[in-house]
Structure formats: C-alpha cells, structure tokens
Amino acid sequence: MAIDFQTYDDDNIFAKILRGDLPNKTVYEDDNVLAFHDIAPQAPVHVLVIPKGKYIAHDDFHAKATDAEIVGFWRAVATICDDLGVTAEGHRLIANQGAASGQLVPHFHVHIMAGKPLGPLIAPDS
Ligand code: 5GP
Fold it and tell me: In angstroms, how far is CA 42 from the centroid of its own chain?
C-alpha cells in the first residue's frame, strides 16, 4: 500500500519507538530529539535522528516546528556526529522526502552515515 505523506500516521515505526512500544538502541536523547542506530545499517555508522514532534518529512518539520525545535534539532545532529567521532573523518547526512526519494518511514528523520568511503551521492541508474 502506498505511504500517505499528507497525514501523520500515529502507527508509523518511529512513532512506536517514541512511545516505547518498540525498542531502539539510543545514542542521544533530549526533550525534543531522539537518535538511535538504524536496524539495517548501510554503513559502519548508521544513526537516525528524529524530532519527537509529529512531522512527516522535512517540509512538514520546517513548516510547522518552532524555531527552537528546528535549531535544537540541527544542533543535536552536530553534537551526535561529534559524539560518534565522525566529524573530522567525514560523514553523510541524508533526509528522504516522499515517494521519489524512497522515504519508507513517514516521520521526519536524518540519517548519519559514516565509517567507510560512502561512494557516489546517489546510486547509478540500473
Ligand atoms: P527512509 O527510507 O524512510 O529514509 O529510512 C528509514 C530507515 O528506518 C531505514 O534505513 C530502515 O532500516 C530504518 N528502520 C525501519 N524500521 C526500523 C526499526 O524498527 N528500528 C530502527 N532502528 N530502524 C528502522
């Protein structure tokens, strides 16, 4: 079934993690942000950073979140990269938005990926 990117789904996987209905391997938490290891890592370091508010994707987050939430979120991303030790070596931040990007979980999140040469920005056409 196609993912609905218009209406927030309270049963999406990350909503369940935020409620404590599903476990996660937390690497960072504050009042507005949670970060945890991806369940299917695609690099030696693969961490997901999510706001605790109900935002579907980055358009929704940047349209509806408070300035404090937005600043706090991006400061947390930088702090987490430092904590993971991947700031100096380099890393990639990815935020998928909607169907064409392949977004699978309709709760805004940023992937932090690092720990090996990450290759081209997107997969070559098959
Ligand atoms: P998207 O494609 O939406 O940008 O990325 C969703 C990510 O969530 C994927 O990398 C996927 O492996 C991860 N993921 C899906 N379900 C779970 C889960 O239950 N726990 C964790 N930690 N990650 C998940």
Answer: 14
Edge-to-edge strand ranges of the sheet holding 26-29? 26-29, 33-37, 45-51, 110-114, 92-94
**Could you report the per-residue pLDDT of 79-111, keeping only the tens digit for each?**
999 999 999 999 999 999 999 999 999 999 999
**Nearest-angstrom CA–CA distance, 67 and 73:** 10
Give the active site residue among 91, 107, 109, 111: 109
Tell which atom from ligand 1 comes closest to the C-alpha of 40.
Answer: 12
Question: How far away, in angstroms, is 13 Cα from ligand 1 center?
Answer: 8
Give 34 Cα–ligand 1 centroid separation in angstroms.
Answer: 14
Q: What is the mean pLDDT of the chain?
A: 96
Which residue's CA is minimally distant from atom 21 of ligand 1?
A: 39
The minimum-distance atom of ligand 1 relative to the CA of 102 is 2
pTM of this prediction exceeds 0.85: yes
pLDDT band per the 50, 70, 90 thresholds, residue 1:
confident
| 109 assigned to active site | yes
- The predicted pLDDT at position 126 comes to 56
Q: Going from the N-terminus, what domains does the chain have, and what CATH number goes with each? A: 13-114 (3.30.428.10)
